[in-house]
Specification:
The complex is a heterodimer. Chain A is built from no helices and 11 strands. Chain A is mainly beta. Classes of the chains: A mainly beta, B mainly beta. The interface between A and B is medium-sized, with 31 and 29 residues.
Chain lengths: ~120, ~110
């Protein structure tokens, strides 16, 4: 099993350009998440999904959109990139449950630079 | 507003020493507290986790101590090894939160031989 994979690994954009980050998981997890990681700020949740066809906002959703058309895929879109979106983006997935103790499995990350 | 505060930002420990990382939280609805370990160029991975009904959990050289009344928890790494050099994140989530994690800012640990 590949676990959680992310495409691409690196990307450089110019301000105003758009792009889509792809996350795929082969663990049949219901829940998927997009985080951004910035120095000194830990990981912050952008958007998440609790099932195919559903999405919800996290802590820092502005400037991003997401889609979950298939259970195994979770796409993160930047419609008009800004330098403030320079970051490392991580996707994660987990099993469902209200107990709150289900491990999140993370992908290797995408390093995005916006010039 | 940072709901989970983590300290120190960086830590240097000699091989064989004890590494201690502290976290404090504000939201009393949090009921699950995991620690994630991240190596350079990799995604975070779950290291150890605790629920507030116990005061301590130990897995090998890693121990979480939990103080519910103070709303604080800490990670202790005994007999620290150079291979433990990584960034450590504490996190918290609540029972009704769809496993959404609130992370601390992270601690970069360097274990010198």
């Amino acid at each position: 099993n590949a676990g959680v994979t992310q495409t691409p690994k690196f990307r450089v954009l110019k301000t105003g350009q758009s792009m889509t980050l792809l996350c795929a998981q082969d663990m049949n997890h219901e829940y998927m998440y997009w985080y951004r990681q910035d120095p000194g700020m830990g990981l912050r949740l952008i958007h998440y999904s609790v099932g195919e066809g559903t999405t919800a906002k996290g802590e820092v959703p502005d400037g991003y959109n997401v889609s979950r058309l298939k259970k195994q895929n979770f796409l993160l879109g930047l419609e008009s990139a800004a330098p403030s979106q320079t970051s490392v983006y991580f996707c994660a997935s987990s099993r469902p449950g209200t107990s709150g103790n289900n491990e999140q499995f993370f992908g290797p990350g995408t390093r995005l630079t916006v010039l | 507003q940072q709901q989970v505060k983590q300290s120190p930002q960086s830590l240097i420990v000699q091989k064989g020493g004890i590494s201690i990382i502290n976290c404090a939280y504000e939201n009393t609805a949090f009921d699950y507290f995991p620690w994630y370990q991240q190596f350079p160029g990799k995604g975070p991975a779950l290291l150890i986790a605790i629920r507030p009904d116990v005061s301590e959990k130990k897995e090998g050289r890693f121990t979480i101590s939990f103080n519910k009344s103070a709303k604080q928890f800490s990670l202790h790494i005994m007999d620290s090894q150079p291979g433990d050099s990584a960034t450590y994140f504490c996190a918290a989530t609540s029972r009704s939160g769809y496993n959404k994690l609130i992370f601390g800012a992270g601690t970069r640990l360097a274990v010198h031989p």
